[in-house]
Amino acid sequence: MTTITAQRPPMQGTHHQSYVVTDAITMLRRNLLHMIRYPGLSVFTIVGPVVILLMFVFVFGGTLGAGLPGVDPAGGREAYLAYVMPGILAITIAGTAGGTATTVSMDMTEGITARFRTMAISRAAVLAGHVLGNTIQAIIAVALVLGVGVLIGFRPTATPIEWLATFGLIALIACAITWIAVGMGMQAKSVETASNLPLLLVLLPFLGSGFVPTDSMPAGLQWFAEYQPFTPIVETFRGLLLGTPLGWNAVLAVAWCVVITVIGYVWSMVIYERKSVRP
Questions:
Q1: Per residue in 105-119, pLDDT tens?
Q2: Tell me, what's a Pfam family for it (predicted)?
Q3: Residue 261: inside a domain
Q4: Residue 117 falls within a domain, yes or no?
Q5: CA-CA distance, 130 to 202, in Å (whole number)?
Q6: Measured between alpha carbons, how far is 197 from 204 in angstroms, rounded to an integer?
Q7: What is the span of the domain harbouring residue 230?
Q8: Is residue 53 part of a domain?
Q9: What's the structural domain count of the chain?
Q10: CB of 169 within 8 A of CB of 256?
């Protein structure tokens, strides 16, 4: 673990901000090293979405694609690959939350977080290291899953600006999801519980427009699908990568990311203050 200086002069103004940044970078380095030394969780965040992608495209894609509006049944599988890819990207991002919740819970149960709190290190930086590390992991995972999609026939039409906007949105979503995962990891009473709680996030793209149009769902589920966070996120990916109409989806997607980030940050910091110091 990276050594952190135990004594510092009083932190005020820009000096305080510089310490926060320095501490966050230190914690980010720690989390990146942890990802490298224990790659199992990172590999699963890539393998899981790829398996789902291959199964839905090559097992169900022909039938599901033929049911999409305006699609020739003969080209159903190719059409469904284009349709489902944004949903797979959303699942990939959501899937990274499990690793964060698990590592945060391990730090809590092993007393590492309590140890950090006794040191001269910014409290926000302790958790920010997890968030920054997971955001980087999510971007890498999405890039690799996108590569698999291209290999099996996915053909995005995005311009360089649209690609930049896509990865900017990926970073925003990953940041938002990770703050929620940090809260889950700190709230969980065991590492096993922490590893299971983020599965709820992975289910949300299935209950939105990620895999089938929302208008094909029963009325109650359709209402939920249209107003939950992942539907505008998925539709924004479609608009950026494939040129479908964006409407208000991009605005809603960014707004959801901001709201979820604020909720996750406040929740995590409250739990950190209450639970990180143990008798």
A1: 887 777 766 676 666
A2: ABC2_membrane
A3: yes
A4: yes
A5: 19
A6: 13
A7: 20-44+85-276
A8: no
A9: 1
A10: no
